[in-house]
């Protein structure tokens, strides 16, 4: 019985391709549209909306600064604009790169940083610290707090991609096959 168990689990231990591929699939199935729709809410009008984010974009990313200037974007600095534009683009580019498996480790690392900044903004900027159910707690009986519980799972999936890479069904793997090993 023990040797049968060891034989089965040994095969799973060698299935690194499966873990990486499933991590990208889970990301695509659960988070891709979340980030894309969030990015869409930040775009301004027309084609130039990529460079002129909506007022809502500033309010989402810099809630306290926007409140301080009574939601007049023209009173914010070039720094605010650059962060909002970069954050908006990141919500489209990084998830797309992860799903197709291109620069996956770097993209997943970028998404981890994005999720951390997003969580801090939700907690500090939007007052999530004041709502125990939003912030949550680990090792309690409630698995659905928006910050500690959900985002721990998001970061875990992304960490799998940082450590394991994209897997064999990816642009990363195709490019690696084309480059001769040194």
From TrEMBL:
Pfam families: DoxX (PF07681). It is found in: Membrane. It comes from Roseobacter cerasinus. InterPro entries: DoxX. This is DoxX. It is a multi-pass membrane protein. Keywords: Membrane, Transmembrane, Transmembrane helix. One of its GO terms (cellular component) is membrane. The chain crosses the membrane at residues 17-37, 78-102, 109-129, 152-171. Its main location: membrane.
């Amino acid at each position: 019985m023990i040797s049968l168990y060891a034989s089965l689990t040994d095969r799973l231990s060698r299935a690194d391709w499966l873990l990486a591929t499933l991590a990208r699939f889970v990301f695509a199935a659960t988070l891709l549209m979340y980030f894309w729709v969030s990015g869409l809410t930040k775009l301004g009008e027309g084609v130039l909306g990529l460079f002129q984010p909506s007022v809502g974009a500033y309010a989402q990313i810099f809630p306290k600064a926007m409140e301080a200037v009574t939601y007049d974007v023209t009173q914010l600095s070039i720094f605010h604009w650059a962060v909002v534009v970069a954050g908006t683009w990141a919500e489209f580019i990084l998830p797309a790169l992860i799903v197709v498996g291109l620069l996956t480790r770097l993209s997943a690392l970028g998404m981890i940083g994005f999720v951390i900044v997003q969580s801090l903004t939700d907690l500090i900027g939007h007052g999530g610290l004041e709502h125990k159910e939003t912030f949550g707690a680990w090792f309690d009986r409630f698995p659905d707090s928006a910050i500690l519980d959900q985002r721990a799972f998001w970061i875990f999936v992304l960490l799998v991609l940082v450590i394991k890479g994209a897997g064999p069904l990816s642009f990363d793997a195709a490019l690696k096959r084309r480059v001769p090993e040194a």
